[in-house]
């Protein structure tokens, strides 16, 4: 199966659902990203700022770039001119810096709140309480260049289906509670980003609207990311 074949298989799999594919291109060269683009893929995800800023100018301007990895506040400025969605918002400080940089460039940047749903200690993300506290902050009510569009989570790296379903269900539950408490009349708040190469089918069954898939499209990565 070529990259183009893989993209077409995902297009078929997602047809008629409300779930979209973010092709995770980290570690892969622009030639392979172009191949996916030529097969019709437009949403791409990268987890490192330096890699994203190096690739973006080499590729078509209508790609919707998603930053999916941990983002340091001092690096927001490098991606603010072009990034479409930052999926990894995990602090108020970061959110306010995205607002500041987006304003500088007179742009809107879409963001997702990243929640910690996995067992692993090391995975970044907010707890429910942290998210609530953040959204109650007066500064968040006044955001003008940031649109909070939903939630993102990374499940535990496991084959245990019931555990994965439970974690995906937890994230969907957070989404629904936030929607009810903070975004009731906001059509924009609509995304649940969950599911990767190993677990995207379960994630779709549990309500994912954005799956982030790398190795099932591009093959295994030459070096870990
Ligand atoms: C690398 C990565 C993915 C894609 O992982 P695959 O298993 O290759 O599909 C998804 N989400 C995040 C946050 C990642 O860093």
From TrEMBL:
Origin: domain of life: Bacteria
Residues modified to N6-(pyridoxal phosphate)lysine: 26
GO molecular function: pyridoxal phosphate binding
Pfam families: Ala_racemase_N
SUPFAM superfamilies xrefs: PLP-binding barrel (SSF51419)
UniProt cofactor(s): pyridoxal 5'-phosphate
Keywords, sorted A to Z: Pyridoxal phosphate
Membrane spanning residue stretches: none
Residue span, Alanine racemase N-terminal domain: 3-221
Family: Belongs to the pyridoxal phosphate-binding protein YggS/PROSC family.
Function: Pyridoxal 5'-phosphate (PLP)-binding protein, which is involved in PLP homeostasis.
UniProt xrefs under PANTHER family: PROLINE SYNTHETASE CO-TRANSCRIBED BACTERIAL HOMOLOG PROTEIN, PYRIDOXAL PHOSPHATE HOMEOSTASIS PROTEIN
This protein's name: Pyridoxal phosphate homeostasis protein
Source species taxonomy: Bacteria, Pseudomonadati, Bacteroidota, Cytophagia, Cytophagales
